[in-house]
Design goal:
575 residues, alpha+beta, 13 strands, 11% strand
Length: 575
Amino acid sequence: VIWREFTRGALRGDFKGNEVFMGLVEAVMIKSEWQAKGKQLTNMTYSTPFNELCNLLADLAPRAYRVFKYHFAGRSLRSMRAVRSILPKFEPGISLNNVAMVAASLRCLGYGGPLALARDETKVEAALQGYQDAAKEWHLLGPCTGEVVVKSVDALDALLQDPSIKKGTKACVWTLGIPLPGIPAFVVAAKCLGEDSDAQQLVEMDASLFDLLRTQGIRPCSIAADGAEVERSVQRQLAISNEFYTYTIYHALPTLTLVLQTPIVDGIPVVMVQDSKHAYKTARNQLLAGARFLVMGDHPLHYEQLHNIAHSPIGPLFVRDVEKVDKQDDRAAARLFSPETIEFLCKLQEGPKPLGLIVYLFIIGEILDAWQNREIPHIKRIQLGLRARAFLMAWHTHVKVHPDHTTHVQFISSQSHKILLSMCDSLILLVIVYRKYYPEYPLCPWLHSTECVEHLFGILRQLRDDFTFSNIIYMVPKAVRYMSGAFGVLSIEEQANKTAAGYHHTYFKSQDLDIAALMVYPSDTEISGAFDAATTEVEGLLRAVGINAMTLWSQMDPVQVPTAPSSETPREDTD
């Protein structure tokens, strides 16, 4: 009965979308037929989705794959190794071959939309090792100055023994992603760096990578960094070296008018993005810093408040969130800024309510949610960004002009302040850039981040606890297959559909995303209205802690509004 039902289902097309399963059934049937005829299985061919599944299983557990192959079907491990040996290798450094492989993949997918570049670093074991590229040339990997091409094995041996060569301790990796859900990022470059690498070195590497991307017609619309001082310095220097795309949001109060700028590279604005999850942790760590005692109006923000939440029987924080803390814990940061924590604070019965902490968690948590939320419309994201920016400007001015306060003690750190302001500005700029250049594509801001690079590092550490830079170069192809996940086992047609603008509404229905909402971009009039609403909200929130926001905004220096027509004219709808 089951086979009769299976046949009926197959004829109805019930399994049409499950290419892996159909490939498995086809392979088992052909294998059975060939074995019945006494034929060898060495020349069997397999569907691409099923073959990708076999490759993934073989990477994860070779012994388990042998059992799978015995009972079902699939290539031998030897055959897989032979196929991989003729594929282009991932090369160390900033390589034209790596970029060309990415460009070929984009052409294969038929994708011509926005792209997100990300860069991050990780620690590696200091070691010098040899590497032979596809052209059979030897390279020395591991020096902090980058890989060295050597002419012979003897020369390589001599360099390996040279004590004057300084070994690198960090690996810098660049990925290029299609910012649509479920699509893995491409690894485009990897460089070995020393502990003392500076912003200028990274700027030069970024410039080299952009030159190679340009030769292949690849133009990213964003560059994500993790918020470290060196990373932000790189973004600033890159911005200085290019012309600007300018967008102005006017306000009735001249000192509140915002002039947002981002560099133009190869004719496309490139938005400098700070990773939103790093910003979560940065904002949390400000409350844990013993050298600061934050004050907002009549209300302090300090460590004891968090300690009391964690030690309350019904508190939403864990004790480990406030004692012997892991400052890189994403989940702890998410718990602190969660609605549950704010609700807990609002319902406190004993002592005065920590209104300053409540306002801080609410406003900062909302801008971070504006980046990560999959459901809210873009005009709401912009309003949250503008609200956070107006709040930070008022709070900073309040501490700055207070006779008994200093921004070095009663305010968040200068670096954190700049990161949070950048979070507000870059979110707005992403919406504006998409509206002007990519209106037929949905904006998923949470995918413009360094999370794809961190995911790669996590997979590498699953493959090997401690690795050298050379290990990274060899492990990248396997890690990419891990990252491919479900996308890697789709058919070529399905992969192309997933990246084609015309198929968004149908393909993403199963992802619980409102793609139609993610493709609705607000007009300048709507953005102006959102700014007015945001400042009104901030006035009310700060009034609760004893701060007159309007008075403080009036004391700020007026911005220099461009006299020439800017890239956008926000007084009228331009779309």
